[in-house]
Structure formats: structure tokens, C-alpha cells
Design goal:
The protein is α/β, with parallel strands linked by helices. 41% of the residues lie in helices and 19% in strands. The chain folds into four domains: 4-233, Rossmann fold (3-Layer(aba) Sandwich), CATH 3.40.50; 240-453, 3-Layer(aba) Sandwich (Rossmann fold), CATH 3.40.50.2000; 477-575 and 658-727, 3-Layer(aba) Sandwich (Rossmann fold); 583-654, Trehalose-6-phosphate phosphatase related protein, domain 2 (Alpha-Beta Plaits, 2-Layer Sandwich).
């Protein structure tokens, strides 16, 4: 197993300064538990902040802390109180936390503290790079370190880097409100694998990449200029076995009976950090409404609400605590009696045993956050119910809701409906309770935290720095020009094979708008007139279009990726039979998806069909393209055709028809005297690059994986390269 470097904002310890040094205690919790095995088994390191600021510790205490942490294979990043206030409380928790949880009203009017956030991410990158060894897997965690993957990629270009987001990724419309949205997205794209709890969070991230950065996402991956970033859904679990074992401990049943006052009371239980995302005020309002609507439940039920202190030095959290305190006091004051307290409110953390006793005592577990990345409390409750009984009421806005559909799912913003869901849960018969809980338990036990960790690391371990079948372009425009001039001085002939769209002309909203401009026609004419020069233009377009646009030039034309060819003014010659029984079924699908995708259109060619979506909404077009490819793959699985995704186009064409077939025969004597240039911009041009000799000058125009030797930025650079050929001296 490769060594794993775990990188998170916090180390899994609690540090307490003492008179003689420091006391370090291991933390418990979902992340610490889940990462314990790979940390121990791989012999790796955990890198993060210890929780103690520089100002809190003396020089001697810092030395003692470093020594104790090293024995636990933990590496601490020292942070000052100012950095904690701005990087952690300021930008991470003051800006990213509320925005990612859809609470835009909690985001400050002026977004500050970006610089400290970026600065601490840089410090993390330096520390990780110092401890990295070749072959290590680097696993970065959560929203405090969104920039870190890219910063590590710059320092460790061949490292395998994973990132997991433990909170929701918001919708694209919300995410784009961040001033530094581009930087954050590019930061995450430094990873080889980016993981989320749910498919919805992955979709939101993909939509942001598409709408903000203009990237095309293919279901579970995005292709960058020199490498691929994989995207995955990895719903985090809990240590279900541990919770189950604790629920069976001797003496726990007596604690359960005590909590329920020997069966006199039925309990609703809520366990949350005291955070405005957890929905505690609306939960209290729903409980209050339950008592109003069903007075027969008074003195027979109780809400036990555990509120674990959180970010107590932040003003917004202090105000939130005051609000909750007032609501609890009001409900107890209105409904309480000398022998009954409606809400038992506990403002502190509980031990795991105390929590399990509460989970076992709960008739109804209420997990109703306004928004939550996953919410492991719901899974802890399920794992603790070894008795097979109990009801889970779960917010549809918790990440766990898509994994736990048998729970009673509620919209926490609808207080009336939530109150009735509480009543339904309290009134539910035993058979239904057990039938709902059984599949929940099976799922929570199977997909536990150890499976989550293993699945992510297994997938990260399969990532490579770049796709095996492609390589990074070696150099840019000036290097390509230099290589061309060197070969032209030694060889008499020039053979140029040029793609059209995206290479000679920029992409346009509709195919008809890409007709050649006078400057291009003049350039191609000059190049074709160059002595001992043979010029070919190859395109996916129909032959009628190429004939109309370029037919007057003394060059060879190849239409529909080489199915039709016309050599220097001769007749068009086809490469085979144009008939195909697959066309009508495929056209039916294309017409349907075009009707559902405004801005898209169908191009019907003699042997191929193409669906263009350049004018469609970016996110909708990319999603429809993925849908179309899946549908066509199933429909045409037994047909001799291939489905090709290009630049905002999906094309269906017969097998064996590709741009590589246009390369003319090159016997050894001609090859020795010919400079060969092949230039193109998308995946269809890779067939051309693969068909030419190894020493040919192959040029990729724009981003994307490629076999080409050179990469240039776009159409202006491509034309500049061709101008250099026109101006180059012709050997005598």
C-alpha cells in the first residue's frame, strides 16, 4: 500500500498547554475514525493545524508538541491567532461555510480575508511538499483547503492528489456570487480525483466548471490541457460496527429506561452542533406546533435537544445561541407543568456512550438541517438501533437523504408539515417502523466509513499523471516554427495537412457562420503557390460546403473526416458505400433531443450525422450531450459505427472513416525529402496525428489530451505558423 499523506485543516488531536509542557489527546469523530486505518497501515503522515495558536505556546511547549506529534506521525502547521481569525473564522467559516450551505444572508456584505486564506493554503502546500516522497498518495480534505490541490500540483507535478469535500457544493448560480470563484475552481482542478458525498454536489461542481470556466465535463471527468481530472461520488459512512457494539453493552438498557422515565415518556431526540445550518429554531417551532395541534401529547412526549458548542467566539454564533435559548425558554414556559418539561435542552457535547443511550431511547430521531453535506448523526442513530425499532425523520436537504430514502423525509422550511411528520412518526405502528429501519441498517452497515476510505484511495491509486494514450505537447508556437524552419532547410518538399474548424477558423455559433474570411483565403492561396508544396484541408463538414468555400483554391479537400476526397480540382471520390440502416433510428433520437435543447441543431451529411450544441446553454448542452451519447451507444451497439464527441458536437460516423486515411503514400525516398506538417484542434485530429511518421511536425491547436508534438493557443497562432511557411526560404 502506498504511503498516504492526509491533509486537513485540523489534526485529529486536542492540545492543552500545561505547566510542564503540553497534553495531547486523540480526537474521536467520523473523519479521525475513517482515516485511522490508512494512516496506520500505510505508515503515512497527517498534516494539519494542532488547534493551538503560536501565541498560546511557549518555545519549550512548541518543541514538546512537535516531539509528541511526531511520535504519532502527525505534522503540525503553526498558525498565529491572526491567521486563525481571518483564514479560518473569516473566510472559511464566515464566507464559504454559509454560502456552500445556501445561507447567502449570512455572507458578509464585503467579502474579506481572501489574502489570509490564500496565504495559509500556500503554507500548507510548502509543508506537504517538504514531507512528500515519490509514490505517496496525497488526500486533501474540505473547504478550508480549496486552493491546495493546484498549489501542490505546481510543486509536485507527478503526485497523485485527491480532494474530498465534506460539505455541500452549492448550485452554480450561488457559487458564482463568490468574487474568487475562478481561483477556487482552478484550485480544485489541481487534484487527480475530486470527491463529493452526493451526485447533486458533483453536478453542481460540473455545472460551475462548465458555466464559469467554460470546460466540458463528461459525466465523471473533465479533460484539461495536459491531464484528466476524475470526479466521483463517495458518500461517507460511520464506524457502524463500533456503534452497534456499544449499543449492546451491559447496563445501557437501564440508562435507556431512565431516559424514558420507565416508559412514561416518548422521546424525540435531536443531536447537533449549535450551527445555523442545523435547523434547530425551525425544529423547535415544529415541535411547538405539534404540542398546539395535538394537546393529548402533552406530558407524554419530550424533545431532548443536544446542542454541541460551536465557534463560540464568532458573533453570529453567539446571537444564534441566544435565539435558541429564548425559544427553548418560551416553549417550556408556555407548555411546561410541575411534573413535565417539554424540551430538555443540553448545551454541551456528550460522550459516545451517552449518545448511543440517547439514540437507543429515541422513539423518533429528528435530523432536520436546513442544509448539510452528509449528516452522520442520522447514520449513527440507525447503527445504534440494534433492537430494529425507531423512526428517523430526515431533512431532504441533508446529504444523507438520498442514501436513506426509507426515513420520513421533510422540508424543514415547512414548519406545519414537519410538525405533522413528527406526529406521523410518533403514531407509526411497530411493523412499519421495523420495515423502514431494516434496509437503513443494512445500508449503513455495508457502506461504513472504512469502505468509504478504501473506495476513495483505491480510485485515487489508479489515477495517473496523464492519460497513458496521450502525452503532453512538448512545446509551443515558437518551438514549432523553429522545427519547421530547420526541416525546410534540409528537405525540398512540404506536405501540409490542415483541419478547418477550430484550426483555420474559430468556432462559431452555427456551422454556416464559419465560412473563410478573405485573409484566410489569401493565406491558403499563398501557401498552395509555394514551390513543391502540397496542401490538404480535411474537415468533418459536408463536401458541398467545402466545395463552396474552398473549391476555387488549388488544394486537396477532404470532407466528412476523409470519406470524400477531391484532389486539386478533380472529382469527389468516396471511400465506400454511403447507405446505412442505422441513420433513421439515430435521426429520430437526434430530432427528439434537438427539440428539448434550445440552440442545438442537426447536421445531416452523406455518411455521418452530427449534433451541434454551441448555441445551447452550456450546462444543458453538456448534460444533453452526455445523455445523447449514452442513448446512442445502447441503440447502435451492434452497428458498424462510432460515436465521437468533439468541440460541442456529437457525431455518428461509420467505423474506419477518420482523418488518418487522407495521408498520402509516403515511400522512403519521398519521406526523406518532405517536411510533413499536420495541424488540428480536437479528438478527430488525433487519428491524423497517429497516421503520420514519428518525425512529422504535429501541432495541437488549443487544450486537450493529444499525441501531437507541439501545442499552440488557438486560430491566430495557427495562422501565424502558416505565415512563417509562406515567408520561409525555399531550398533550391
Amino acid at each position: 500500500m502506498p504511503r498516504v499523506l492526509i491533509v486537513a485543516n485540523r489534526l485529529p488531536v486536542t492540545v492543552t498547554p500545561t505547566a510542564t509542557g503540553v497534553e495531547v489527546q486523540k480526537s474521536s469523530g467520523g473523519l479521525a475514525t475513517g482515516l485511522l486505518r490508512p494512516h496506520e497501515q500505510s505508515g503515512g503522515l497527517w498534516i494539519g493545524w494542532s488547534g493551538a495558536t503560536e501565541e498560546e505556546l511557549s518555545t519549550e511547549q512548541r518543541a514538546a508538541l512537535t516531539e509528541q506529534l511526531a511520535a504519532m506521525r502527525l505534522v503540525s502547521l503553526p498558525l498565529t491567532a491572526g491567521q486563525v481569525a481571518r483564514y479560518y473564522e473569516g473566510f472559511s467559516n464566515g464566507v464559504l461555510w454559509p454560502l456552500f450551505h445556501y445561507l447567502l444572508d449570512q455572507v458578509p456584505l464585503h467579502v474579506r480575508d481572501w489574502e489570509p486564506y490564500a496565504e495559509v493554503n500556500e503554507q500548507f502546500a510548502e509543508l506537504v511538499a517538504r514531507h512528500y516522497l515519490p509514490g505517496d498518495l496525497v488526500w486533501v480534505h474540505d473547504y478550508q483547503l480549496l486552493l491546495l490541490p493546484e498549489l501542490l500540483r505546481r510543486r509536485l507535478p507527478d503526485a497523485r492528489i485527491g480532494f474530498f469535500l465534506h460539505i455541500p457544493f452549492p448550485s452554480e448560480e450561488l457559487f458564482r456570487t463568490l468574487p474568487e470563484r475562478d481561483r477556487l475552481l482552478r484550485g480544485l482542478l489541481g487534484a487527480d480525483l475530486v470527491g463529493f458525498h452526493t451526485p447533486a454536489y458533483l453536478r453542481h461542481f460540473a455545472a460551475s466548471l462548465t458555466q464559469i470556466l467554460g470546460l466540458t465535463v463528461e459525466i465523471d471527468r473533465v479533460q484539461l490541457a495536459d491531464r484528466e481530472v476524475r470526479l466521483g461520488v463517495f458518500p461517507m459512512g460511520i464506524d457502524a460496527e463500533s456503534f452497534g457494539a456499544m449499543a449492546e453493552e451491559p447496563g445501557l438498557e437501564a440508562e435507556v429506561r431512565s431516559l424514558k422515565e420507565d416508559g412514561r415518556l416518548r422521546l424525540l431526540v435531536g443531536v447537533d452542533r449549535l450551527d445555523y445550518t442545523k435547523g434547530i429554531p425551525r425544529r423547535l417551532l415544529a415541535y411547538e406546533r405539534l404540542l398546539e395541534a395535538h394537546p393529548e401529547l402533552r406530558e407524554r412526549i419530550r424533545l431532548v435537544q443536544i446542542a454541541v458548542p460551536s465557534r463560540t467566539n464568532v458573533e453570529a454564533y453567539q446571537e444564534f445561541r441566544s435565539t435558541v435559548d429564548q425559544m427553548v425558554g418560551r416553549i417550556n414556559g408556555v407548555f411546561g407543568t410541575p411534573r413535565w418539561v417539554p424540551v430538555h435542552y443540553i448545551y454541551r457535547g456528550l460522550s459516545e456512550r451517552e449518545l448511543v443511550a440517547l439514540y437507543r431511547a429515541a422513539d423518533v430521531m429528528v435530523v432536520t438541517p436546513l442544509r448539510d453535506g452528509m449528516n452522520l448523526v442520522a447514520k449513527e442513530f440507525v447503527a445504534s438501533r440494534t433492537d430494529g425499532d425507531g423512526v428517523l425523520v430526515l431533512s431532504e436537504f441533508a446529504g444523507a437523504s438520498w442514501e436513506l430514502p426509507e426515513a420520513i423525509q421533510v422540508n424543514p422550511y415547512d414548519v406545519e408539515a414537519t410538525a405533522e411528520s413528527y406526529y406521523r412518526a410518533l403514531s407509526m405502528g411497530e411493523e412499519e417502523r421495523r420495515s423502514r429501519l431494516a434496509p437503513l441498517r443494512a445500508r449503513v452497515q455495508t457502506y461504513d466509513v472504512h469502505r468509504w476510505t478504501a473506495t476513495f484511495l483505491e480510485q485515487l491509486a489508479t489515477c495517473t499523471r496523464r492519460k497513458p494514450e496521450s502525452r503532453q505537447a512538448l512545446a509551443g508556437l515558437e518551438a514549432a516554427k523553429e522545427e519547421l524552419l530547420i526541416q525546410l532547410r534540409d528537405r525540398e518538399e512540404l506536405l501540409a495537412l490542415l483541419d478547418y474548424d477550430g484550426t483555420l477558423v474559430p468556432y462559431t455559433a452555427t456551422p454556416e457562420l464559419a465560412r473563410p474570411d478573405p485573409t484566410l483565403l489569401e493565406l491558403l492561396s499563398a501557401l498552395a503557390s509555394r514551390p513543391r508544396t502540397e496542401l490538404h484541408v480535411v474537415s468533418g463538414r459536408a463536401r458541398e460546403t467545402l466545395e463552396q468555400w474552398l473549391g476555387s483554391l488549388p488544394i486537396a479537400l477532404h470532407a466528412e473526416h476523409g470519406f470524400w476526397s477531391r484532389l486539386n480540382g478533380s472529382e469527389w471520390i468516396s471511400a465506400g458505400d454511403t447507405g446505412a440502416g442505422w441513420r433513421e433510428p439515430a435521426l429520430t433520437i437526434l430530432r427528439d433531443i434537438t427539440a428539448r435543447t434550445p440552440g442545438s441543431l442537426i447536421e445531416v451529411k452523406s455518411v455521418a450525422l452530427a449534433w451541434h450544441y454551441r448555441m445551447a446553454d452550456r450546462e444543458v448542452g453538456a448534460r444533453r450531450a452526455n445523455e445523447l451519447r449514452l442513448h446512442l451507444t445502447q441503440l447502435l451497439s451492434n452497428q458498424p459505427v462510432e460515436i465521437l464527441a468533439g468541440h460541442k458536437i456529437v457525431e455518428i460516423r461509420p467505423y474506419g472513416i477518420n482523418k488518418g486515411r487522407i495521408v498520402p503514400p509516403l515511400p522512403p525516398e519521398r519521406l526523406a525529402s518532405t517536411t510533413l506538417l499536420a495541424m488540428g484542434d480536437d479528438r478527430t485530429d488525433e487519428d491524423l496525428f497517429a497516421a503520420v511518421p514519428p518525425d512529422a511536425i504535429t501541432v495541437k491547436v488549443g487544450p486537450g489530451a493529444t499525441h501531437a508534438r507541439f501545442r499552440i493557443d488557438g486560430v491566430p497562432a495557427a495562422r501565424s505558423l502558416l505565415h512563417s511557411l509562406v515567408q520561409a526560404e525555399v531550398p533550391r
